[in-house]
Specification:
By secondary structure, this protein is of the alpha+beta class. The chain has 11 helices and 6 strands. Strand 2 (121-122) and strand 3 form a beta hairpin.
Length: 290
Amino acid sequence: MDTPAILDQITLDAVFAAAWRRRWLMLACVLLATGLATAAAFVMKPKYLVEVVMIPVKADDARSALSSVVGQLGGLASLAGAALSGGGNKDENIEYLRSYDFAARFIEEENLLPILFAKKWDAQNGRWNVDDPEDVPTVSDGVRLLDRIRNVQEERRTGLVTLSLKWRDRELAARWANLMVERVNRDLRARAIAEAQASIDYLNTELAKTGVVELRESLYRLYENQVKTIMFAKVRSQYAFKVIDPAFVPDADRFVQPKRIPMILIGALGGLLGGFLLVAFLLRREQLAK
């Protein structure tokens, strides 16, 4: 009998019949695959998900915060009625939170490279355990890894912004998430103050040059706006993002990876499929031997 004719005889019914005859082999395949999947599911180091829920600071929030302060300053109280821009442009602030620059600063300030690349770090001797100096992790490597474990999502309907981190150390993950929001607010506050102070220095120079009343009034209005910006930035620590729900350390059993039950089920199904393939292979050999 030629090979094509033999292959035509290997139908699904024939395979199922052969599988039933070799049901102990099928069971062994399922048990082996399930056991391997179960071992992998319990050996893998768990990863935890933490989230910080916040809302971008709006102009109304800024006006309220500033009014409460300048109301106590006598002649400066008139500044509270001026238009406020809050913590800056919302979209720009969110993009800064996602940016390479912010991630790199955070990694350097917190010295995260030995933690992010712990397998390459010799903690006992305080050095990198690599043979080639080019294999030493860089800040760019750290940013790429951080981008894989962090996520920033904006809910357009509610305006809420969620920063999430997925990491194997649940305490570190919660600390990093809260620190990131704190550092973003700090950086954006410092940037706003520096820009406003530069504008004030420039306006002082222009005021000293001109004696035109109308122009001086316009410059004073600009001056007041910059003073207002500095005041708001200095009195509000949550300058760009107001935290609604900070990150908390999850319980030890509240990990998100590995998903043990799906892994075990996939292992069992894989073992069943592997068993059918093995039975089909053995059936084909039997047919060829005839």
